[in-house]
Design goal:
By secondary structure, the protein is an all-alpha fold. The chain has nine helices and no strands.
């Protein structure tokens, strides 16, 4: 069944039945609850803090020591689905990069896949900032990331420095 069929069936329902179905979805599925909570009260500063905690959890789990970037990337993707601003998405991506740099400086070199993921997030965040016209707002933060990578190998510092200078000429 596709979206067209679902819409057709929903159009047949009375308002009370639709409200009942949406209420059930709200109670049963956390992403639906988060979506409607944000839709009703779109406080980006509050929601971004919640998602920063989720991003950080992938780097610094509450239990154990295993790095799980999939948790952090999922948090970023879920945040995008809420319909938040591009600037907030760029901010969360920049936070992802900051966590990666912090982890590396604390525990030492990781691996190429890790650095590629962090580099891609840095580049994507700068691109979003450029498109939204907010590069200036994030300039100091973007430079601080580059400065904190000076002693990191794998060409990581060079790549971030290059990207920084591409956007901040």
């Amino acid at each position: 069944m596709g979206l067209r069929e679902v819409k057709s069936e929903l159009n047949k329902l009375e308002k009370d039945a639709l409200i009942k179905h949406i209420s059930e979805l709200y109670k049963k599925f956390k992403p639906v609850k988060e979506y409607f909570d944000f839709y009703i009260n779109p406080d980006e500063s509050k929601i971004i803090e919640q998602y920063r905690k989720k991003v950080r959890e992938g780097f610094y789990p509450k239990r154990g020591y295993k790095l799980r970037l999939s948790i952090s990337r999922k948090a970023i993707n879920d945040f995008k689905k809420l319909g938040t601003s591009k600037e907030s998405i760029a901010d969360l991506l920049m936070y992802y990069v900051e966590c990666g740099v912090e982890l590396t400086n604390e525990f030492g070199d990781i691996d190429d896949n890790f650095y590629t993921s962090i580099e891609n997030a840095y580049e994507t965040s700068l691109e979003l900032m450029y498109k939204e016209g907010v590069l200036k707002k994030f300039k100091d933060r973007a430079l601080e990331i580059v400065n904190k990578t000076k002693n990191i190998g794998w060409g990581f510092h060079d790549y971030l420095q290059y990207e920084y200078h591409e956007y901040y000429k």
